[in-house]
Amino acid sequence: MKTDSQLQIDVMEELRWEPGVDNERIGVSVANGIVTLSGIIRSYAEKLLAEKTVRRVSGVRAVAEELEVRYDWQPKTSDAEIAKRIADILEWDPMMPRGIEVVVEDGVVRLKGNVEWHYQRDLASEDASRISGVVRIDNGIAVIPPVPTSDVRERIEEAFERQADLEAEKITVAAIGGKVTLSGRVSSWNKRNIAQRAAWSAPGVTQLEDNLVVA
Q1: DSSP character for 107?
Q2: 4-69: what CATH class?
Q3: How far is C-alpha 145 from the chain's CA centre?
Q4: Fewer CB within 10 Å, N side or C side of the chain?
Q5: Contact between 102 and 86 (Cβ < 8 Å)
Q6: Which fold has domain 152-214?
Q7: Model confidence pLDDT, tens digit, residues 188-199
Q8: Cα separations in angstroms, 47 against 9, 52, 114, 137, 148
Q9: pLDDT tens profile 16-36
Q10: Is the entire prediction scored with pTM above 0.85?
């Protein structure tokens, strides 16, 4: 098992190798395998990328993110303009349904509405994060499948079997209605993310509780 000091070095090296992240603006501290990121960065998209980069480092148990988004190189974008740009990009995205409500206050974006698939909920956040001036996204979009599905658990297990990266992993799937719980162990954050995506892709899933342990 890595020491906290070794894990800190590995995380800093991984951030240095990620071209989309300005590692010189980010401070890294580690305690008991939990990585804390601090500093001031240039965009919300870079904030998400920094966290994603850290999670792929072996030995990271969790990420506490205290990064601040500050646009000191450009005039402040008004909330009305941010809201309009987000509404436009959501309307132009062919994968997104109509009717997503966008509210912006002091750069904080609140999304509301209903979608049929969880990937659409994630896509709304991804689309919104591309707009300059966004400092945080509160995604209140609800996932409501068009038709209730009774065999959610079986479909997820079949999806896991199709994933070559997961065939050696021991994952237990429990489903009650649209709520799915994953438990067991995986060997990396990447495999944990693959399991999450596979579970969310099953029709009828409205809630996912991920109890997978990376070890």
Answers
A1: T
A2: alpha beta
A3: 21
A4: N
A5: yes
A6: Histidine-containing Protein; Chain: A; (3.30.1340)
A7: 888 888 888 888
A8: 20, 9, 26, 12, 36
A9: 888 888 887 788 888 888 999
A10: no
